[in-house]
Design brief:
It contains 18 helices and 15 strands. With about 600 residues, it is of the alpha+beta class. The strands form 3 sheets. Strands 9, 10, 11, 12, 13, 14 and 15 form a 7-stranded antiparallel sheet that branches. A 6-stranded mixed sheet has the order 3-6-5-4-7-8, with helices on one face.
Length: about 600
């Protein structure tokens, strides 16, 4: 069990510094407001609170308490501990037992999320209106310690945040979620959950204590207490609405998954796989014969059934899809869940494969295996699938039966099944898109040796020349043929310039301000991109809000409006393949991911 605890602890530490927890950080930071301020006029405290320099005190946020006359009398500010304790307690408890409680009471699946949003709004209103604050503190009024009483709303704030906390799920959190959803809770699962919670709490507590330190050191927190309290309250209310309407995911998608490598080393090594797999049964053990992400097709045993599906989306009349009926076709199973940022970033690739190869013998099935209770709601899933552009069949695996059948451990995860119904390949997490597509093509050729395949993702023609420009990834680790100046600066806004001699065939250059990242390049002021290619058409995966002006051989040809999540946009389309010079002028903030050519 000690090894399991260590895996959970390290997994929690990594999760707490991942991009997925960014929405809760401002509130955690503000929860560490100062416990003392400048001396205020003496007098009795108002009912339910303590007199402050700017009005009645609050248990959470940036509040100012009139200091005691001596240091010995000064109460200890424990709000950072209270908010983190509340967050970890509610997250751990409801991740393990939330599904069971909701099912037993017959409540809607997303009720916990709504409760969390309501608590966040109430805390925000409490910071703005003292009367609301005193109402929140009443449940703690009978606790004899005066300071605990005052920290009550900070603890309530933490409870609310715990219900809204949606971290990036690796194998550890996946194991906890699956056990909780299926009611398979034992000593190992409890130990894993507690160690994961402690690991998550440490970075969050450091962040909250840093907020307290800043608030105590910066004079503005003491002299402008009332203004800062109102601003903090407004921030919490805005955050609640941003979470409710899924606004925060755009920021999370824009950031690279900088913890992916560390998470894979800690949670998906041989020891971790053995320990986490030991929490479940030994069904479909043949899948263990294959390794994640190998660059060749192997025989991984018969494809497990799609079991326990609550509902089907994007099928005629909601009819179920039976894998046995798909013999003769290649099948891609994509495990995902709509609030998972990693899943959202991988969806454009899956969608492109579906468009390109559906008529060539590929069937894509999305298995939506929820990480949280609110993701079980069929209406929520249908709405998000529509917004994300998912058109292929989606199976709602609410009880995670299919997840278990495939011995899955990751969101997202992709499994390739050949025309005879055998699993031949799987890959966990983001990446390996070109490799996965190559293996899809191999399986399609095996199923039908005479099939005419499109040469690249999303293209519909096969009569291209052999020297077509290959797919070009706008990634600091994968870009080839960069010819601009200066050299690419990773994750830093930098001014670039086109080379004086122009861009050669297969080369790419930047001008204006760009931020080059691991997953995408983000346009800044005056951003331009030049590329010389040979193909019939050129396409680019773009995301954000804005426009792209397209110039071919120096002539402006079109302006492409860009809206929303990463999507493949057609930039140029000719009747025959030829060499062309492409220049793009992008609105600041747009993200460019990868070029494909046909």
């Amino acid at each position: 069990m000690l090894t399991l605890v260590l895996i959970g602890l390290l997994g929690g530490l990594i999760t707490a510094v991942s991009p997925c927890i960014l929405p809760v950080l401002p509130v955690v930071f503000l929860a560490g407001g100062p416990g003392n301020g400048p001396a205020g006029p003496p007098g009795p405290p108002p009912a339910g609170g303590t007199r402050t320099a700017a009005g009645p005190a609050a248990g959470g946020g940036v509040l100012l308490e009139a200091p005691p006359r001596t240091a010995r009398e000064r109460p200890r500010n424990g709000r950072p501990y209270a908010v983190v304790a509340g967050l970890v307690l509610s997250f751990s408890f409801f991740t393990l037992l939330g599904v069971t409680i909701i099912s037993a009471l017959g409540l809607p699946q997303d009720v916990l999320r709504y409760i969390g949003l309501a608590l966040l709004v109430l805390i925000g209103l409490g910071l703005i209106f003292p009367a609301v604050e005193r109402l929140l503190e009443k449940p703690f009024a009978r606790i004899p310690q005066r300071q605990v009483n005052k920290e009550g709303s900070a603890f309530v704030l933490g409870l609310g945040l715990g219900l809204l906390y949606v971290p990036c799920a690796g194998p550890v959190l996946a194991a906890i979620t699956v056990a909780g959803a299926r009611g398979e809770i034992n000593a190992d699962i409890v130990a894993l959950t507690l160690s994961f919670a402690v690991g998550t709490a440490i970075p969050l507590l450091v962040f909250a204590l840093a907020g307290r330190r800043v608030a105590e050191r910066v004079a503005a927190f003491r002299t402008r207490a009332r203004t800062l309290r109102v601003m903090a309250g407004l921030l919490m209310i805005v955050l609640a609405f941003a979470l409710a309407f899924d606004v925060t995911t755009a920021l999370q998608r824009a950031l690279p998954d900088y913890t992916a490598a560390a998470q894979k080393r800690v949670e998906d090594n041989d020891t971790a796989r053995q320990k986490l797999s030991g929490l479940y049964d030994d069904s479909n053990k043949d899948l263990a014969r294959c390794e994640d992400g190998v660059d060749e097709l192997r025989s991984c045993g018969p494809a497990p059934q799609l079991a326990g599906i609550a509902k089907w989306l994007n099928t005629p009349g909601g009819a179920p899809v039976d894998l046995a009926s798909l013999r003769g076709r290649v099948v891609l199973i994509d495990f995902w869940t709509y609030s998972c940022i990693n899943c959202q970033r991988s969806l454009p690739h899956v969608q492109a494969w579906d468009r390109a190869y559906r008529d060539k013998g590929l069937t894509v099935i999305g298995v939506h295996s929820p990480e949280f209770a609110f993701e079980k709601d069929a209406g929520n899933v249908a709405d998000q699938a529509r917004k994300l552009g998912v058109r292929y069949p989606v199976a709602l695996d609410n009880d995670l039966d299919t997840w278990n059948n495939y011995r899955n451990r990751f969101w997202p995860a992709k499994y390739l099944i050949d025309a005879q119904g055998t699993v031949r390949y799987f890959t966990f997490g983001e990446g390996r898109y070109a490799q996965t597509e190559d293996l899809i093509r191999d399986l399609l050729r095996q199923a039908d040796p005479g099939v005419r395949l499109p040469p690249v993702t999303g293209q519909a023609n096969d009569d291209l020349t052999a020297d077509r420009t290959p797919e070009t990834y706008l990634s600091t680790s994968r870009l080839r043929g960069y010819t601009g100046t200066p050299a690419l600066a990773k994750d830093k806004a930098t001014a670039y310039a086109f080379p004086p001699a122009g861009v050669p065939l297969g080369g790419l250059a930047l001008a204006g301000t760009w931020t080059a990242g691991y997953e995408q390049f983000t346009a800044g002021q005056g951003a331009r991109l030049a590329l010389t290619y040979r193909a019939k058409n050129a396409n680019l995966v773009l995301a954000g809000e804005g426009t792209v002006t397209v110039l071919i051989d120096g002539k402006e040809t079109k302006t492409v409006p860009v809206h929303g999540a990463p999507t493949l946009y057609r930039l140029a389309d000719e009747k025959t393949a030829r060499e062309a010079h492409l220049e793009l002028r992008l609105t600041p903030g747009l993200q460019a991911f990868a070029f494909t050519f046909g």
